[in-house]
Amino acid sequence: MKSGRYLISCGGTIAVLALACSFALAQGNGNGHGKGHGKKNQGDNDDAPSYAFSDHDRDAMRAWYHDHQNSLPPGLAKKDRLPPGLERQLAERGTLPPGLQKRIQPLPVELERQLPPPPPDCEHVVVGGHVVLLNRRTNLVLAVFHFEIG
Asked: Which of the 8 DSSP states describes residue 95?
C-alpha cells in the first residue's frame, strides 16, 4: 500500500515538473513582462510585409540627387541633416518617433515619378536627408534610403 502511494506521489511530482518546464520554455518573448515587451514594431515582426528600395530605385534617387544638388528642396539640403540621436531612431520596420514626424517633408514630384508607386496607406517622404517609405496610418517605417550628403 505504501509503495502504491509512493509511486503515485512520484508520478504526480514528475508530471507537475514536466508541465512546469513546458510552460517555462513556451514563455519566449510573448506579450508578458519579460524581454521584448512593448517592441512589436521593431525588427523581429516577421508577420509584417517587407519592403525595400531596389537597386534601380537607389540608382534613380542618386542620379536625381546628383542632378539637383545645387537646388535641393527642404529636407534634402545639408543643413536639414538629422542629429546623430534622431538619426539612430530612424530604423526600418520601426515606428517613426514624434520628433521625426515633425520633420517630414514631401518627396519632390520629379523624384516621386521615378519610383514605383508605394503600397496602400504608404507614401515616399523625406526626413532629414533620408527618403523614407512610410505607412502614414501607423507611422511604420518600411524602407529608408540615405543620401550621402557631404
From this structure: B
